[in-house]
Amino acid sequence: MRPMVKPALRRAWRARQTVQFGVTPAHAVSIGPVDTATGALLERLDGSRDLDLLRADARTMGLPDGLAESLVRRLTAAGLIDDASSGGPAAEALRRRRDALDRLRPDAASLSVVDPEPGGGLRRLAVRRGLRVRVRGAGRVGASVAALLSAAGVGGVEVLDGGCTEPGDVTPGGLPAGAVGERRDLSARRLVRRAAPGRPPRSSPGGGGDLPGEPGLALVVVCPRDGLGAYVPDPLPAADWIAGGVPHLYAGVVEATGVVGPLVLPGGTACASCMELARTDRDPGWPRLLAQWRSGGRRVPVPACELSLASTVAGLAAAHALSFLDGELPLTAGARWETSLPLLDWRREPLAPHPRCVCGAYRKSEGDDTPGPPGSHERMAG
User: Fold this and answer.
1) Which of 2, 95, 147, 344 would disulfide-bridge 195, Cβ 3.0–4.6 Å?
2) pLDDT recorded at residue 271
3) Is 99 exposed, middle or buried (0-12, 13-18, 19+ CB in 10 A)?
4) What percent of the chain has a predicted confidence (pLDDT) above 90?
5) CA 186, CA 164: separation in Å to the nearest integer?
6) pLDDT for 80-118, tens place per residue?
7) Which of 378, 382, 379 is nearest to 367 (CA)?
8) Do the Cβ atoms of 251 and 314 come closer than 8 Å?
C-alpha cells in the first residue's frame, strides 16, 4: 500500500489542532486533535511511500513508534485515504494506459471523493471500461448522452437510431454540422469513438447486435428525438428489457420541459406500463389523449427541443447513468425529474409500481429485494 490523502479534497486548518479535508458539506471531514508533528507527517502521505518508508520517516521526525500506522488507519476510517497502487488488475491495466488515464484523471479524482475505499475511484473507472450501454436515439439529447458516457470511460457505448442527421440534430456536445445528411447511427458511432479516452471502444456490427462473449447490457438509455416518448414512454418497446432484466433510463425534452427518469429496475421499480396505468387511474381520458399523440397523423413536424435545455437534460441523464453503472442507486430509480423553461425549477415525481402491471414490481415493493446497480447491492442507497 502507498497511502495518500485524497488530493481532490482541499486541506486547511480549521483550528489550532483540527484539520478539515474538503470544502462542501457533502464531503468535508474534520479530524482532530492533530499536533504539529503529526501534521508534518500528513505531508508525507502523498502516494510516493509505502508503510515501511512512512515508519522510517516518522522515526526520523522523532515521532512515537506506531504513529504512522495509527494515522493511516484513522484517516482510512474517515474515508480520506487513497492508495496509489490498489484497485485490482483492471485498475492496474488502466494505469498502464497512460493516454486514457490522463484523460480520466479528473474523473478519478472526483470518484475518489465518492468512494471511501482506498483505490476505489480508479477501480470504478476500470469497471466502466468493461460495461456495455445502449443509447436509443441520436438527436440533441441522445447523441450528447452517448458522447458523455464514452468520454467518461464506458468501454462499450452503442447508439441506435434511424434516418439521416438533420440540421436541427446538431449540438456542440453531440452530432457535428459535418454529419448533416449522413445516417444518424453511423454519425453517432463516430462521435462515440472520437469521445472515447484512449483506444476507441469495441462496438457490435450494425450498432446493436450482440457478439459471442460480449458482456450483457448493463443499461439502456432511452432518448427519443421526439421527447413525448420520454415523457410518456411506450410500454411495448420496454417489454423485452423488462423480460430480460435490463435496467433502462428515460430522458428527453418535450415542448419546453426536460425529463430525466425514471430509471427502471425490472421487477423492482415502476416501469412504463406502471406509469401509464397510474395516470389512467387519475385521468380516465388519458388513454384517448395518448392514442392521438402517438398516432402518425398527430405528430408535430419539428419536435421542440431548446438547445441549452437539451444539453442540461443530457448531462443530468449521463450523470445518473454513470452513478448507476458505478454501483450507486441514483434518485431517478422509481422517480422522474422535470424542469421547464423559463424558470427551470426541478421537480421530483415519485413513481410507484402499479398493482395491475405484469412487471411484478408491485409484489416486491414492500420487501427489500429491489435489484440494484451492477455488482454493488451492498452500496444501495434505498
Assistant:
1) 147
2) 97
3) exposed
4) 69
5) 9
6) 999 877 777 888 888 888 888 889 999 999 999 999 999
7) 382
8) yes
- Give Cα separations from 81 to 43, 44, 115, 121, 328 (angstroms): 13, 12, 10, 11, 21
pLDDT in tens, 11-59: 999 998 999 999 999 999 999 888 888 888 898 998 888 899 999 988 9
Above 70 in pLDDT, residue 261?
yes
φ and ψ at residue 102, rounded to 5 degrees: -60, -35
Domains of the chain: 3-83 (3.90.930), 88-125 (no CATH), 126-379 (3.40.50.720)
Please identify which residue in the block is written with the cell numbers 499536533. Answer: 35
Tell me the one-letter amino acid at 324: F
| Residue length of the chain | 382
Measured at the alpha carbon of residue 236, what is the angle toward residues 356 and 304, in degrees to the nearest 5? 110
3-state secondary structure of 10: coil
Query: Where on the phi/psi map is residue 327: left (φ > 0), alpha (ψ -120 to 50), or beta?
Result: left
pTM of the model: 0.88
Q: Which helix (H) or strand (E) holds 289?
A: helix 286-294
Q: What is the mean pLDDT of residues 334-357?
A: 96
